[in-house]
């Protein structure tokens, strides 16, 4: 098994050397993993997550709703917003790749009103950041990207269940020891909204960015195949 970039251009590294290094890295991951349980649209996501962390445990820890990869590609091709729990994700996602599809990326965790509301309610900024995104109409048909704050993920799940929120996809990979594992397990019980999660305590913004870049590449492949 070897890496095949399948003619992508917009979602490739910008220099020939950068492309060669990345392609060889992906090929090494393919060789060392060998056989795996993931489908052809899922493995590129897991591969890139392993590439970003050098942690082969994500071959197994990563789980997908059956419609996750397809839903993510469709949303990107439609120019969806991406709403993140923290600024790190917004900084990490390639701006030229987003611009190619007309996608925008948002976070509200540091907004003054979010901070004030969280303090007044003795809650977390992550909760009120997601509520603000919802008020602004950014969560429906969006990709919601959570890599740090379990409370952000729990709030999105609440909005889905109680207020009929319908994101296109949730990439739910909060890292840590308090509610991280539980929030992802709860997300995996949803069948009305596609999701990608990492089981257990492991997660983080780096993984979410890697998954988003993989989905952008899959979207480009889909667009070229039309």
TrEMBL record:
Keyword Isomerase: yes
InterPro entries listed in its UniProt record: Cbl_synth_CobH/CbiC (IPR003722), CobH/CbiC_sf (IPR036588)
Domain called Cobalamin biosynthesis precorrin-8X methylmutase CobH/CbiC: residue spans: 21-217
Gene3D superfamilies hit by this protein: Cobalamin biosynthesis CobH/CbiC, precorrin-8X methylmutase
Pathway field: Cofactor biosynthesis; adenosylcobalamin biosynthesis
Keywords assigned by UniProt, alphabetized: Cobalamin biosynthesis, Isomerase
Superkingdom of origin organism: Bacteria
The keyword Acyltransferase belongs to this UniProt entry's keyword annotation: no
Pfam families: CbiC
Entry's family note: Belongs to the CobH/CbiC family.
Family matches, as PANTHER family: COBALT-PRECORRIN-8 METHYLMUTASE
Protein name, entry field: Precorrin-8X methylmutase
Native organism: Spongiibacter thalassae
């Amino acid at each position: 098994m070897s890496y095949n970039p399948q003619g992508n251009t917009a979602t490739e590294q910008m220099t020939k050397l950068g492309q060669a290094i990345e392609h060889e890295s992906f090929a090494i991951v393919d060789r060392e993993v060998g056989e795996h349980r993931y489908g052809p649209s899922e493995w590129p996501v897991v591969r890139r997550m392993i590439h970003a962390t050098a942690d082969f445990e994500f071959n197994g820890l990563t789980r997908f709703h059956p419609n996750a990869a397809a839903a993510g590609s469709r949303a990107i091709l439609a120019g969806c917003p991406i709403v993140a729990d923290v600024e790190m994700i917004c900084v990490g996602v390639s701006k030229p790749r987003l611009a190619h599809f007309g996608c925008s990326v948002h976070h509200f965790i540091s907004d003054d009103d979010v901070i004030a509301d969280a303090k007044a309610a003795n809650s977390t900024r992550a909760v009120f950041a997601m509520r603000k995104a919802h008020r602004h109409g950014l969560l429906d048909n969006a990709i919601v990207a959570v890599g740090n704050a379990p409370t952000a993920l729990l709030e999105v799940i609440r909005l889905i269940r109680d207020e009929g929120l319908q994101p296109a996809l949730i990439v739910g990979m909060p890292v840590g020891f308090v509610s991280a594992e539980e929030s992802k397990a709860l997300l995996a019980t949803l069948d009305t909204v596609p999701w990608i999660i990492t089981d257990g305590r492991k997660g983080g913004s780096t993984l979410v960015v890697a998954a988003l870049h993989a989905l952008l590449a899959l979207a480009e492949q889909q667009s070229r195949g039309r």
